[in-house]
Amino acid sequence: MAAMAVALRGLGGRFRWRTQAVAGGVRGAARGAAAAQLGRKVAVVDYVEPSPQGTRWGLGGTCVNVGCIPKKLMHQAALLGGLIQDAPHYGWEVAQPVPHDWRKMAEAVQNHVKSLNWGHRVQLQDRKVKYFNIKASFVDEHTVCGVAKGGKEILLSADHIIIATGGRPRYPTHIEGALEYGITSDDIFWLKESPGKTLVVGASYVALECAGFLTGIGLDTTVMIRSIPLRGFDQQMSSMVIEHMASHGTQFLRGCAPSRVRRLPDGHLQVTWEDCTTGKEDTGTFDTVLWAIGRVPDTRSLNLEKAGVDTSPDTQKILVDSREGTSVPHIYAIGDVVEGRPELTPTAIMAGRLLVQRLFGGSSDLMDYDNVPTTVFTPLEYGCVGLSEEEAVARHGQEHVEVYHAHYKPLEFTVAGRDASQCYVKMVCLREPPQLVLGLHFLGPNAGEVTQGLALGIKCGASYAQVMRTVGIHPTCSEEVVKLRISKRSGLDPTVTGC
Amino acid sequence: MRRRSPPLSPGPCAAGDAPNRRSGHAREELRRRLRGLIERSRVMIFSKSYCPHSTRVKELFSSLGVECNVLELDQVDDGAKVQEVLSEITNQKTVPNVFVNKVHVGGCDQTLQAYQSGLLQKLLQEDSAYDYDLIIVGGGSGGLSCAKEAAILGKKVMVLDFVVPSPQGTSWGLGGTCVNVGCIPKKLMHQAALLGQALCDSRKFGWEYNQQVKHNWETMTKAIQNHISSLNWGYRLSLREKAVAYVNSYGEFVEHHKIKATNKKGQETYYTAAQFVIATGERPRYLGIQGDKEYCITSDDLFSLPYCPGKTLVVGASYVALECAGFLAGFGLDVTVMVRSILLRGFDQEMAEKVGSYMEQHGVKFLRKFIPVMIQQLEKGSPGKLKVLAKSTEGTETIEGVYNTVLLAIGRDSCTRKMGLEKIGVKINEKSGKIPVNDVEQTSVPYVYAVGDVSEGKPELTPVAIQSGKLLARRLFGASLEKIYHTLFWPLEWTVAGRENNTCYAKIICNKLDHDRVIGFHILGPNAGEVTQGFAAAMKCGLTKQLLDDTIGIHPTCGEVGNRRF
């Protein structure tokens, strides 16, 4: 029997490498104990099942290949389009309009992703982590098995096994043509040619982000939403995100659900949809249909039942305790494959790091899933941490919640003559002094950069009073947060004036 | 920050049924509100609507034509509580309870007696002895915020603001340095320079245009000046809305409580006030060498310069100098910075040097350890040509250079010497010209206060100054107790654009003796302001390394380096 201490296993998963990177202490000593550095033998098993459209990618999981990284780079391309329009106001003599070349962008983005894939392999090697590019599944509770390229069967056994296979985009099951003609976020970033006129179906952040950058690079883009946008996020903020997108050229079909996709003789896709309230049918033609209706965990091909790992019957996600342990004591699960966890890269990384520290570093620190900050990279970015206004009211009652808010205008918008109607910030606090901050919501440029530090503040138990005692950095957008004076309850106009 | 206390709402209610939460705190709040009422009103009467004594007092004041602020205790929810607190303040349990110009007069009988003795009339007049409750000299960030706040609290306020034209003749409107010749135009020109970089990047992101993009200084400056004019206007409007008197005149003290205001035409007007705030700020310093005032410009002139400055020498190493040099180079101009000693004095020197090397890599030339000794005009024009003679600070070496523009950014002097402070006895630091103030911003003359850049040791960012002083001492004397975590990072947006790696840098400094409490945060990279703000709030809340490690990053941003990399 192989003397392998740990097998970190991932099948096209999102975070397995990341976990390993943390485990391998790639960033150095400050990151704490690492399984490999602690003298353990570690193997990573990763295999990307091609998407229905045939897209495949390398090591690194969703984030690096078909998620955060290419997404933010394409978002950046779209932002640059906006900046090119701003530039003449600032004295740069650029003839407008400036056309955009998808192939050039896609190639640059894909090259960067490939360099990351390579970097990850090198780092695994440096840490002496064995990497197997095979599709593996459980044989028993200590063994996984897979077939290598030459048809050779590989059996790996380990004392501890961590499942981090992540999720893959969901395809609709009862819509004719969905699978044949539709693509998902697994494909969009690897398209060689421009997607052209695109219909994005879904209201998740993936849907809105993709629609946002497609619009931004000049494509005719429509988003079809059946019910509410950005479920789980603060709904006031969500509707402002949509408002901003609509005012910047993204078209929305609200309260509609697709029923059929067909390829027309000229190659276009004809989509038929139904208005959910009137029941009326309508059609439109597009070059591309992108499904962004959610993600499903990658657990089915793992033969989890052979190991005895329990999953949720509804979601097929793996059930774990607060120590990330599954129903089998030495098998753990982290990341998107786990029931009830936020589907975010940094939470997966941290959960993985803490897990390894508990397993081999003598630590007992648990992952704290409260106050996880995140940012939605729509054209106007939405950063948030803590509770939404709805959730705060549900937990504490309307009379115990005070919401401070402001409509502000980023200085950079003034000269460029940009519309700032949706630049808005609100802080949800308890009403009782010292007014503990429950949530912060920021809509505006660089929302991620603004939110990160404030998340720390909330982690430190910041109160409204403390935030107000923090000196602003002038002139920035983030200073609006420390200048929040107007409460919703007061009914006063929250428009910021002056500099 | 304190909010305005809501008015005591009228409505039928028996005393004592207000919610019984935290009665101590509520009582303190009530006391504060009552004091506010008493201080804000010329005449304040606590009364009961059915009480005949109260009615007599009200009739007396109305016969005198004096407007009163009346609170009917039988018509407010917390009337009984108000009466209790009043008795604590005045030792009088009954109504009416009368205050005139903050002085407690008493009940009905005492008020009538005071009327007969003439004391009441005297009390009523007292407040009108001065034209204003508060005159603020200087309409910049500090002065205006102070003026608006005082006005909200019911005070009669005047702002005197007058911009003495720069030696090059530049002048501007209301709002002070920040709005007119500081933060605002600076950041807009910085943004213009960033856009130049964004244009370069955008080609790599698939945007197609081949022509060499040129920058047009006039277009930019006009757009920025238009924005500033709108801000100037906004400030005037907001002062008007808050009923603050704004006078565009130069203020000079002539005697106690009295100031002379001289307008552009030389007309003099005199105003008196109970209290004064000096918020005159600072103006750029000149070198005091031959040709400097005639031919050099400062940040006072740059942002509204009607022509492109061309090849520019920036003298100084302050943040003003480096920011200006940075954006000028960003427009494609030939820029040289002449530095006497170190960059960004007072900032972390490792970071300061990194800023310098980044600028050098991006085409800004640095002349270290030189100071100019003479400026000569070779050619007139827009811009003209200037010859600069400079000498080494370490030896006898001299160098010569020809530039279109010389921008001085060697520091700022406070504007305190020509405003008659000596006439009323406000002490200034003879060397720096700054005004020493105590913890409550009070000068050596009790009714005169100073805020902003003019006050000594308390720059505009008071709490930052306190905090940074403390941190500096720790760094200087307690270095061994500190741990420093640092990292280089490559912003995602720079990768595809092919911008340099190993440039962006972040570090935190922790105090080992205090649970690894974070006592310093430094970041060099895009959107540094947006990133730093939240970390500042977190440090205010006692951020430790542990908490930093426990905070989830936002991916992919530059802000997450603070959480992921250390």
TrEMBL record, chain A:
Cofactor(s) needed: FAD
Which reactions appear under catalytic activity for this entry? Answer: [thioredoxin]-dithiol + NADP(+) = [thioredoxin]-disulfide + NADPH + H(+)
The enzyme's E.C. designation: 1.8.1.9
Q: State the signal peptide span.
A: none
Please list the residue ranges annotated as the FAD/NAD(P)-binding domain. Answer: 28-352
Supply the Gene3D superfamilies for this chain: 3.30.390.30, FAD/NAD(P)-binding domain
Question: What are the binding positions for FAD in this chain?
Answer: K72, D336
Judged by the first EC level, this protein's enzyme class is oxidoreductase
Positions of disulphide bridges: C63-C68
Task: Report the cofactor remark.
Answer: Binds 1 FAD per subunit.
What the entry lists under InterPro entries is as follows: FAD/NAD-bd_sf, FAD/NAD-binding_dom, FAD/NAD-linked_Rdtase_dimer_sf, GSHR/TRXR-like, Pyr_nuc-diS_OxRdtase, Pyr_nucl-diS_OxRdtase_dimer, Pyr_OxRdtase_I_AS, Thioredoxin/glutathione_Rdtase
* Top-rank lineage group of the source organism: Eukaryota
* Keywords of this entry: Disulfide bond, FAD, Flavoprotein, NAD, NADP, Nucleotide-binding, Oxidoreductase, Redox-active center, Selenocysteine
- Provide GO CC annotations from the record: cytosol; mitochondrion
Catalytic residues, chain numbering: H474 (proton acceptor)
Residues annotated as domain Pyridine nucleotide-disulphide oxidoreductase dimerisation: 372-483
Any one Pfam family match given in the protein's UniProt record, by short name: Pyr_redox_2
NCBIfam families with a match to the protein in the record: TGR
Q: Which PANTHER family does this chain map to?
A: GLUTATHIONE REDUCTASE, THIOREDOXIN-DISULFIDE REDUCTASE
- The molecule here is called thioredoxin-disulfide reductase (NADPH)
**Source species of the chain:** Macaca fascicularis (Crab-eating macaque)
Automatic annotation (TrEMBL), chain B:
On whether Signal is a keyword of this UniProt record, the answer is no
Keyword NADP listed? The answer is yes
Keywords (A to Z) from UniProt: Disulfide bond, FAD, Flavoprotein, NAD, NADP, Nucleotide-binding, Oxidoreductase, Redox-active center, Selenocysteine
One short Pfam name that applies is Pyr_redox_dim
- List ligand-binding residues for NAD(+): G316, A317, S318, Y319, V320, A321, L322, E323, G411
What species was this sequence derived from? Answer: Macaca fascicularis (Crab-eating macaque)
The GO terms describing molecular function are:
flavin adenine dinucleotide binding; glutathione-disulfide reductase (NADPH) activity; thioredoxin-disulfide reductase (NADPH) activity
- Which residue stretches belong to region Disordered? 1-27
Please list the residues that bind FAD. Answer: K187, G251, D453
> Tell me, which GO biological process terms does this entry list?
cell redox homeostasis; cellular response to oxidative stress; glutathione metabolic process
Cofactor(s) recorded in Swiss-Prot or TrEMBL: FAD
UniProt protein name? thioredoxin-disulfide reductase (NADPH)
Active site, renumbered = H555 (proton acceptor)
This protein's source sits in the domain of life called: Eukaryota
NCBIfam families associated with the record = GRX_euk, TGR
Q: In this protein, which residues make up the domain named Glutaredoxin?
A: 43-105
Residues in domain FAD/NAD(P)-binding? 132-469
Q: Which residues form the Pyridine nucleotide-disulphide oxidoreductase dimerisation domain?
A: 483-561
Q: EC annotation?
A: 1.8.1.9
- EC class: oxidoreductase
Assigned protein family: Belongs to the class-I pyridine nucleotide-disulfide oxidoreductase family.
- Chemical reaction(s) catalysed: [thioredoxin]-dithiol + NADP(+) = [thioredoxin]-disulfide + NADPH + H(+)
Q: Name one GO cellular component term.
A: mitochondrion
Which residue pairs form cystines in this protein?
A: C178-C183
Which InterPro entries does this one have? FAD/NAD-bd_sf, FAD/NAD-binding_dom, FAD/NAD-linked_Rdtase_dimer_sf, Glutaredoxin, Glutaredoxin_euk/vir, GSHR/TRXR-like, Pyr_nuc-diS_OxRdtase, Pyr_nucl-diS_OxRdtase_dimer
Give the record's cofactor note, including how many are bound: Binds 1 FAD per subunit.
